[in-house]
Amino acid sequence: KKEQLQADLLIIGAGPGGYVSAIYAAKRGIKTVIVEKLSMGGTCLNVGCIPTKALIKSSEVFHNIMKAEDFGITVKDVQLDMAKVIDKKDEIKNTLVSGIDYLLSKNNVRIIRGSASFVNDKQVLVKNGKDEYTIEATDTIIATGSKIANINLPGIDHEFVLNSTSALKHKENISSITIIGGGVIGMEFAFIYSNFGIQVNVIEFCDRLLTMVDAEVSAEIKEIAMDRGIGVYTGAKVTKIEKDQSGKAIVIFEMDNSEKFITSEKVLVAIGRTPNMDDLDIEKAGIALNEKGKGISVNEHLQTSAEHIYAIGDVTNRIQLAHVASHEGIAVVDHILGTPSHVDYGMVPNVIFTSPEIASVGLTEEQAVLKNMDISISKFPFQANGKALTMREEKGFIKLIKDLSSGKIVGASIIGPEASALISTLTIMMNSNITEEEIIHTIFAHPTTGEAIHEAVLGFSIGALHFD
Ligand code: FAD
């Protein structure tokens, strides 16, 4: 079958960038076509945000059952069935994926399955087996996301080496794993496996875990990880992976000027993702890459060097977060419609779903210091929050950074229970320029982890009420 299509807007890729843009555009009256070569929802729904969070929840349920005594409950004969854990995760993923198909269709977005490539800057060709579609659109959004980065490491091809995608399908129970990479994906998996009672070691090249978070938060998560028995090796460079006689993995690395090794059943490589421009033929549309040659270059309106072609999300190689991709898509549609649009990259909340969770918005202390800001810091520990204690999750803190010259809170970092939910309150506060006084006079329900925000803000003036 061959078909010619005309549209106002063509979107390539149906991840959180592409599908949200499509629904938003259609709701705003734009005739929209979306092309997807694999599965609706992209990385996020299929092999990213959602499946990892489903596994985290299963692992936390298991972990809580194992420490049920803390809740006054005796539990016997606990069995972990990884195959079922994976199946349950897939059920959630499938529900959400079919939900997107439904929403796109309901909003009259035309869905084309297949792989898209540019013929020139006006035409895109989509191939799906013997079917071919030629699409001409007034505007185009490239939202093809990212893929797992290749790493040149001897032994990477051993059968026991997993990446974030294959790990999400792995149905056998395992006893030990070495994780190469202490970034967001590596640390989320570290806690998933550790919660399941699996021996975990993390090897990180940089001198600390999670380099993007506040140094104190990074130190706290390292301590919490080590308290739980996770081995953490920072400033360590993996040189090769070997297989021992019994078929186990030996990860060899250099640290403190000496060679060390760790033996485990599996290895997970979590060293990052790279923009996915496979099959796109962007050069045929005259689209330029950014200066590092990695990812599509865009201006402040997310326009590429061909101004009617936009690029959003992971393919621009800037911030790899689903909500940034979605928000950029909405901004592009607004720009096309001539509505003022703006993405404030300084106000992007970032959550890392370790146990406990980490969340931040705005500046870290180091960033504020680098900007030569005159700052004041207020910290409130969850050990002084009643709700955290009832949850048996009293570790961690909220840390706020105030710019003394403007009096504004310019940064918030949380490590502790419900950090992922609490960060929304702080993001609204900072994004809407709500003053310290206004927060102090806001009533926070008791007992909630949200009270820790109130206390941390009070810390700037009279001091917290429940902590010295
Ligand atoms: P993607 O989601 O990658 O979607 C791109 C889509 O384009 C894919 O479906 C692909 O098949 C399609 N495509 C590519 N090329 C073509 C082509 N030529 N023709 C047609 N279709 C094409 N982010 C968060 O915010 N929170 C999290 O908790 C989180 N957890 C993560 C956990 C893991 C393990 C991973 C790997 C990522 C996680 N992320 C998380 C990051 C998040 O998944 C990405 O930032 C997000 O998916 C980017 O969205 P996107 O729309 O740019 O691209």
Automatic annotation (TrEMBL):
Keywords recorded for this protein, A-Z: Cytoplasm, Disulfide bond, FAD, Flavoprotein, Lipoyl, NAD, Nucleotide-binding, Oxidoreductase, Redox-active center
Main location: cytoplasm
Substrates-to-products reaction catalysed: N(6)-[(R)-dihydrolipoyl]-L-lysyl-[protein] + NAD(+) = N(6)-[(R)-lipoyl]-L-lysyl-[protein] + NADH + H(+)
Highest rank taxon of the organism: Bacteria
This enzyme's EC code(s): 1.8.1.4
Annotated family: Belongs to the class-I pyridine nucleotide-disulfide oxidoreductase family.
Protein name as annotated: Dihydrolipoyl dehydrogenase
Native organism taxonomy: Bacteria, Bacillati, Bacillota, Bacilli, Bacillales
Full protein stretch here: 96 to 563 of 564
